[in-house]
Structure formats: C-alpha cells, structure tokens
C-alpha cells in the first residue's frame, strides 16, 4: 500500500491507497479519492468519486506522496496521463457552432530561463531572416526546432532572473527598447487590453503591432504571453499521429 499526505488549508490528511501500476495524475487522483471515500464510509459511486476534482487540484499544487515510508516524490507520467484523459473525454454539443466538441489534453514544458521565439509557418526564408535578426539583437545563437506548424527558435542564453528574461522578450517585440523604457513599454502592452474606463477589451493584432517593431513574421502573442506570465510554455506532445519535433542544422 502507498500513502498520500495532502496539505489542505494547513491541515494534513493521509490516505492509504493502492499505487497504480503506471501512475498518472488522473489515476492517482482516482485511487486517492476512492481511498478517501472508503475512510469516510463511502464505497459506491455514480460516476467519479465526489472528491476526485478536489484531489486533482490539491495534487497539482501542494499534494505530496509518501510510499514505503520514504519521503521521495513519485514521478508522474504526464504523456500517459494526457492520453488517458483524451480517451475518457466525452463530446459536448456546442449550440453556437452546431458541432460536437471534445476537450483534448496536451503536455507542455513551462520554463523561465530560456527565450523561445515561435515561428508559426514553414517559410524557410522568413525563418532565416528572423533568426539572423534576433541573434544580432539579443547577442545569442538559436537552435532551430521544426514542429508540425512551424519552428521554435531556442536561445542559448540562460537567464538567472526573470527580469532579464522578460526584458529580452520585450526586445523581441521592440528591438530598440532600452532598459529604462521596459516598464513603460510593458504598461502599454497591459493597457491595450482595456478601454478608457479600465474594462477588459481584447486588443486586435493590429493594435498590438502598432506598439511593436518586430523583425519578420512570428507568433507575437506567444512572446506577449511570455512577458505577461514571466514564463513560456511549448507543447511537447503530439496534436495528431505523425507529428514530429525535429532539430535542424540551420
């Protein structure tokens, strides 16, 4: 038996459960929520155990697994987890589009120490132009990774703090930007999504481009979100069978 200890609002709760053969966040949450129910005298369910969503949320943020009396964290197979969830997702009818839609789970890598430019086409001349421009602007070398929809340009600079990480992303949008101008520029980026009364109003791409002076064509929103979130996320799982992620020598 394994033991899950979960910190919920400062109080720790422990449950003995059967460790799944191939642990994923989904089947761990299922096993723990069933164990929690048994401890509380609940043995029958219609659908998922009532605490499944709560356990999933806690495991995502502050749950800790203890097994065989060791304090080691268990490694979750996120690719298997996403595949399992995809197979269980039920289609939902969308009245607006008059189509059935199904949520698809993907696996991504989130980090805040490497600058990535997402080029969302396979135009090789544009790729070379963007790469050359930003290697000169940012004083770095980019590794080119080909994806199903375009390319990732991955910088060889490693950032030790988020402020420099964010500043260089600002320079991707506005190459001539000085350090002293960073926060004024960021304020304009944030304000563009609000009207004169401070109400949220999604900016158009044309409005965003007016604040920027980008070199070549790439996914501006990817860079903008990296600035706002102070981190970047790239998808590492397939969208469809046959998807390839390939490092190129360019």
User: Which percent band covers the strand fraction?
Assistant: 15-25%
Regions with little confidence, pLDDT below 50 for 5+ residues: 65-74
Task: Find the structural class using helix and strand composition.
Answer: alpha+beta
State the total count of DSSP E strands.
11
H/E element string?
Answer: EEHHEHEEEEHEEHHHHEE
Q: In angstroms, what is the radius of gyration?
A: 23 Å
| Residue share in helix | 25-40%
Quaternary state of this entry equals: single chain
Taking all residues together, what is the mean pLDDT?
A: 79
Query: In order across it, which strands form the biggest sheet?
Result: 7-9-8-11
The coarse silhouette is elongated
What is the end-to-end distance?
52 Å
Total count of domains? 2
List the total number of helices: 8
Main sheet makeup: 4 strands, antiparallel
Using brief descriptors, characterize the structure shown.
8 helices, 250 residues, single chain, four-stranded antiparallel β-sheet, alpha+beta
Short description:
The chain is an alpha+beta fold. The protein has helices at 25-39, 52-61, 78-88, 124-138, 162-173, 182-191, 205-211, 220-229, and strands at 2-8, 11-17, 63-67, 92-94, 99-101, 108-111, 116-119, 142-146, 151-155, 232-235, 246-248. Helices cover 36% and strands 20% of the residues.
Summarize the topology.
Layout: E1 2-8, E2 11-17, H1 25-39, H2 52-61, E3 63-67, H3 78-88, E4 92-94, E5 99-101, E6 108-111, E7 116-119, H4 124-138, E8 142-146, E9 151-155, H5 162-173, H6 182-191, H7 205-211, H8 220-229, E10 232-235, E11 246-248
Antiparallel strand pairs: 1-2, 1-3, 4-5, 6-10, 7-9, 8-9, 8-11
Helix pairs in contact: 1-2, 5-8
């Amino acid at each position: 038996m394994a033991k899950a200890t979960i910190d919920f609002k400062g109080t720790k709760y422990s449950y003995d459960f059967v460790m799944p053969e191939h642990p994923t966040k989904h089947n761990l949450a299922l096993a723990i929520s069933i164990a929690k129910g048994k401890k509380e005298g609940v043995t029958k369910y219609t659908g998922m155990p009532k605490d499944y969503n709560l356990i999933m949320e806690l495991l995502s943020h502050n749950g800790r697994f203890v097994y065989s009396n060791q304090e080691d964290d268990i490694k979750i197979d996120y690719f298997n987890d996403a595949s399992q969830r995809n197979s269980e997702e039920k289609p939902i009818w969308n009245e607006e589009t008059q189509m059935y839609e199904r949520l698809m789970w993907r696996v991504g890598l989130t980090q805040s120490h490497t600058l990535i430019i997402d080029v969302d086409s396979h135009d090789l001349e544009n790729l070379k132009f963007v790469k050359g421009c930003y290697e000169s602007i940012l004083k770095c070398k980019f590794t080119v990774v080909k994806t199903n929809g375009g390319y990732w340009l991955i910088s060889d600079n490693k950032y030790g703090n988020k402020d420099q990480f964010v500043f260089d992303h600002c320079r991707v949008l506005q190459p001539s930007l000085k350090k002293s101008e960073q926060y004024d520029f960021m304020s304009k980026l944030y304000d563009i999504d609000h009207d004169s009364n401070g109400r949220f109003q999604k900016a158009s791409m044309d409005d965003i481009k007016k604040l920027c002076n980008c070199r070549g064509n790439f996914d501006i929103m990817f860079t903008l979100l990296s600035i706002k979130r102070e981190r970047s996320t790239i998808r590492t799982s397939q969208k469809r069978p046959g998807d390839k992620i390939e490092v190129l020598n360019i």
